[in-house]
Structures are given as structure tokens and as C-alpha cells.
Amino acid sequence: MTDRPYRGDSYTPAQAAHILRLTPTRVRQLLQSGELEGERDGAGHWAIPARTVHTRLGRESLLEAVGCDPSSVHELVEALRAEVETLRAELEEAHAANRENRRIIAALAQRIPELETPREQAPPQGPPGGSEEVAEEPEGVEVRPVRPLKAFGRAQSASCGGGCSDSSG
To answer: Taking the model in full, what pTM does it have?
Structure first.
């Protein structure tokens, strides 16, 4: 370590190495490659901003805590950026589909009154044969349209109640 005292806003390579759990040689390599921010004074000594050391320490501690090799961070960041772009594109497609669905729903909702009006205004029709007399339904009896019954995949006449045998086979 150099005799230079800690000024509070910067560290020497030896001090930064101690904090970052690296060798002073490795810290100098990081400074020369630009991976670690620092300045040289007139005598050629490095001064490393304290915020840089603390930021790197926090980032590397975090990476180690999640089991990530700090040297592979660049690859991880690029992969995550690509994934974010993919997700943004998917989200935009979902928003576009949602807008289209809302447009369709609004158009259909506007048509509901015009579709219901003819049914409400249609005059009551009597039974076939010209008689205007309509039999009243007993209370509590629900009238449903007749549908063909299916038994074992074959349609049967509703008149035989599903108990008729099919002579065709």
C-alpha cells in the first residue's frame, strides 16, 4: 500500500484491492483496460473513486449471491436484453389484439338493440288453421322446443321417447 492517505472520495489500487478482494495487480489491470474507473495523478499513481469501488463491490456481491460468474455478466445482459425485446414485441401484439377485440365488442354491443327490437314489436301469431284462440300454458310449466334425441350416437324420433328400436341395423 502507498503512503498516500485515504481522502474519503478515492482509493489507491491497494486499498481498492483489499475492499474488492482482488490483488493490487488485478486492480491495475482493470484500471488499464477501462473496466474500473480511475485517474492517474502527475506522478502516475492511480486514484479510484470510492463510488466506483463500492458500486463494483455491490454488483459483484449480488452476482456471487445469485451464483453468477461476474465474467459472464456481459453475455447474460445481452441475452436478457434480447428477451426483453421479444417480450415487448409480444406485449405490443397482445395490446393490438386487445384493441381489436374491444372494437368488435363495441360494434356488437351497438347492434344488440336493433336485433332485439323486431322480436318485441312482432304481432302475436295464432296457431295454424286460422283460429285466433291461443291455449294458455299452465303455470309452472316450461315449454321447450322439441329436439331429436340421441342414443348411442344415433338420432331417434322424439315421438317414441328413445325406447324404439332401429330396424336399420
So the answer is: 0.35
| Domain boundary assignment for the chain | 10-68, 71-119
Is domain 10-68 classified as CATH 3.40.1370.10? Answer: no
* Helix%, strand%, coil% for the chain, nearest 5: 55, 10, 40
Sites in the chain below the pLDDT cut of 50: 1-3, 5, 154-159, 162, 167-169
Strand partners for 107: none
Cell numbers that stand for 133 in this block: 284462440
Contact 31, 39 (CB under 8 A): no
Q: How far is Cα 46 from Cα 1, in angstroms, rounded to an integer?
A: 12
Judged by phi (left if over 0) then psi (alpha if -120 to 50, else beta), residue 79 lies in alpha
- Answer positive or negative: Cα dihedral of 123, 129, 131, 133: negative
pLDDT, tens only, 16-61: 998 888 999 999 999 999 999 999 989 999 999 988 888 888 777 6
